[in-house]
Design brief:
The protein is an alpha+beta fold and 183 residues long. The protein has a domain of 89 residues. Helix content is 27%, strand content 33%. It contains 5 helices and 7 strands, in the order ααααβββββββα. A hairpin with a 2-residue loop joins strand 5 and strand 6. Helix 4 runs antiparallel to helix 5. The longest helix has 12 residues. The chain is extended, with a radius of gyration of 30 Å.
């Protein structure tokens, strides 16, 4: 019974209303909370840690698989079957023009970079270069140049990612600026 009384008293005393009542001061010149007499710690410089580089033998063993993956990343090719219509022209991610509507969906098979080679595209895409809405299912790389056309039941898309071309060439000399190599 003694514990029940203590718990009840503590719960009443620690309610938000009771806490507000204890910290509220009628004198506005007095702070409602105590201020520490110690001075603040000050500013400390942030030191960045150096990124650990893989040993030379790991880079050498993974060189061929990484170049194959970089080569696959260059191309965007797919064929689609399903009710869809429209077309799109891409000259980078920031200059796209066209309209494509999936009604209700188009099953796509092809090379989407490192993504799964099968995709069900449901959302439409379209607009002008200053206001283009991409399909939610399709990943567009920043330097992609491509052309897509859908004719009611069948469609296709072909494109090349110029930034992936640069990543492939850099990878030949052990430089991976896209940071997508296997480690």
């Amino acid at each position: 019974m003694k514990w029940l009384t203590i718990i009840l008293a503590l719960s009443i005393y620690s309610t938000p209303a009771a806490a507000q009542e204890r910290t509220t001061s009628t004198d506005s010149s007095q702070p409602s909370a105590a201020i520490s007499p110690k001075s603040p710690w000050g500013d400390f410089p942030v030191v960045k840690e150096k990124e650990a580089k893989d040993p030379w033998y790991i880079q050498t063993l993974l060189w061929i698989p990484n170049r194959v993956m970089d080569f696959i990343d260059i191309f965007r090719l797919d064929l689609g079957v399903g009710p869809a219509y429209g077309g799109v022209v891409r000259i980078t991610k920031y200059a796209q023009l066209g309209y494509r509507k999936m009604a209700p969906a188009s099953v796509r098979i092809g090379d989407f970079g490192r993504l799964t080679p099968v995709m069900v595209e449901r959302s439409e895409e379209g607009g002008a270069p200053w206001d283009f809405t991409n399909s939610r299912e399709r990943e567009i790389c920043p330097g992609e140049i491509g052309l897509g056309l859908d004719l009611v039941v069948i469609g296709g898309y072909g494109g090349i990612c110029l930034d992936e071309v640069a990543d492939f060439i850099g990878g030949l000399f052990f430089y991976d600026f896209k940071h997508d190599d296997l480690k």
